[in-house]
Amino acid sequence: MTQTIFPDFEPLSRRFKRLTGSKVHTQKLFYFCGLKRSGLHAVSFWLLGHQANHAFINNKPAKQAGDGSPMVRTIQTSPLPLRLRVGDPVRICRDDQEQAFPLASEVDLLLILFQSQCLQYLQAHEPLVAGVEAKDVRRILLLRDPFNWAASYMKKSQDPNDVNIWPGLWRMYAKEFLGITNYLPRKVSINYNRWFVDQAYRQQISTQLGLAFTDQTLNVVSHHAGGSSFDQTNFDRGAQQMAVAERWKDFSENPSYVKAFQQHLDIVELAEHIFDFSPELAEFAASLRRQPLC
Questions:
Q1: Residue 2 pLDDT
Q2: CA neighbor of 51 nearest in space, from 217, 221, 240, 222
């Protein structure tokens, strides 16, 4: 497991391991899969708010050595299965803040986040977690529309190689969302755009996951990785005020951004099957087909 920045954590973790068995027991185990900058932490904290006794593990992909953006250098696989023991460092959302604690032996909800992972790799490495006994295991897939997601991705990374990375990533997750592929069987798919604005849709998701609906952590902005690509943590406790559906406007005249969509018009078509675009965004999407390739 990763090292903690909290100096008192290791003694506390060792004490947990002495007093309890090593295996973790949980009522619900959620494998949460999505692309970086697609609202993963916002939806994670919302899900965690459904259970007071919860734990959150971010199983981030490894990074390759070299220059350039860490997002571009991300290897799309992590060592699996993830091996957990009682006392391992986990995150817990308390008082609207993410805090580090040793993993308890009994947890009502254990959420493990897989960021930008190759979905075929995840399928090939079941079970994804060792050392956990769970009564209810769910796979969750999150997808954000490509126009706003790519804008957030490029804003955070600011590496010229981004346009060679994100089209393939988004296409892989969109095909899984639509059922063209089925690397995550019996999954619950979440449309981030709808989740952000539609309480009835959030209630539907809670029901699908066997949770008693709540929005109590809806407005939390995680401090992880600096928060939002555009707003950082300025809207913490007011996340619903963020203009997450208008990020594309900042890149609508960016030649690399526009060219990437023009070279991958199938992404536009996939998005049109999944998302409801605003009139402005629908016109921008249509203009990509009309304009000559940059």
A1: 40
A2: 217
Spell out, as residue ranges, where the chain has pLDDT lower than 50.
1-7, 19, 223-239, 241
Q: What is the C-alpha to C-alpha distance for residues 126 and 263, in angstroms, rounded to an integer?
A: 35
Kindly tell me the burial class for residue 289, based on how many C-beta atoms sit within 10 Å of its own C-beta (0-12, 13-18, 19 or more).
Answer: exposed
Check residue 263 and give its pLDDT.
95
- Alpha helix locations (H) across the chain? 9-19, 40-48, 119-124, 146-157, 166-178, 192-197, 199-208, 255-263, 265-274, 279-290
Distance CA 172, CA 262 (A): 18
Q: What are phi and psi of 96, to 5 degrees?
A: 60, 25
User: 231 — phi, psi (to 5°)?
Assistant: -110, 0
pLDDT of residue 78: 82
Predicted local distance difference test score (pLDDT) of residue 70: 65
Sign of CA dihedral 9, 11, 13, 19: negative
- Read off the tokens for 28: 């619900």
User: Within a 13 Å sphere around the CA of 262, how many CA atoms are in the beta-carbon half?
Assistant: 17
Asked if 70 and 161 count as a contact pair (C-beta separation under 8 A), the reply is: no
Identify the CA nearest to 147 among candidates 33, 1, 51, 270: 270
Residues with Cβ < 8 Å from 52, sequence gap 6 or more? 108
pLDDT over 70, % of the chain? 81
